[in-house]
């Protein structure tokens, strides 16, 4: 694999992962009550705990995208 192919793959990874992040955020905003009822069937959660878990999950996922996809992509663009 050459640098161009790696850049292209990382760019696709960034795009797909950000699409997943935006879908997750959109579903959480638009169907919050439905998701909360679904999760409370399995787990005993308050609304505040549910929101905290999803907010933390979104933050960790976003940091993972930046750390593992975006930073290497930017480094490859600067190095070439």
Write a concise keyword list for the protein shown above.
80 residues, mainly alpha, DUF6868
Please tell me about this protein's structure:
By secondary structure, the protein is an all-alpha fold. It has one domain (3-79). The chain has 3 helices and no strands. The chain has helices at residues 3-30, 32-42, 47-79. Helix 1 packs antiparallel against helix 3. The chain is elongated, with a radius of gyration of 17 Å. Residues 1-78 form the DUF6868 domain. InterPro entries: DUF6868. Keywords: Membrane, Transmembrane, Transmembrane helix. Pfam families: DUF6868.
What is the C-alpha radius of gyration, as a whole number of Å? 17 Å
Structural class: mainly alpha
Straight-line N-to-C gap: 15 Å
Number of helical segments with 4 or more residues: 3
Q: Domain count, please report it.
A: 1
Helix content: over 70%
The coarse overall form would be elongated
The main β sheet shows up as: none
**Averaged pLDDT, please?**
97
Encode the helix/strand succession as letters.
Answer: HHH
Spans of at least 5 consecutive residues whose pLDDT stays below 50 are none
Q: Which percent range describes the beta-strand content? A: under 5%
Instruction: Write down how many β-strands occur, each being a DSSP E stretch of 2 or more residues.
Output: 0
């Amino acid at each position: 694999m050459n640098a161009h192919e790696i850049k292209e793959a990382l760019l696709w990874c960034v795009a797909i992962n950000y699409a997943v992040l935006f879908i997750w955020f959109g579903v959480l905003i638009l169907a919050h009550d439905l998701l909360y009822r679904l999760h409370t069937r399995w787990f005993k959660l308050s609304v505040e705990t549910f929101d905290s878990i999803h907010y933390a999950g979104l933050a960790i996922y976003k940091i993972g995208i930046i750390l593992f996809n975006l930073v290497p992509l930017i480094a490859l663009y600067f190095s070439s």
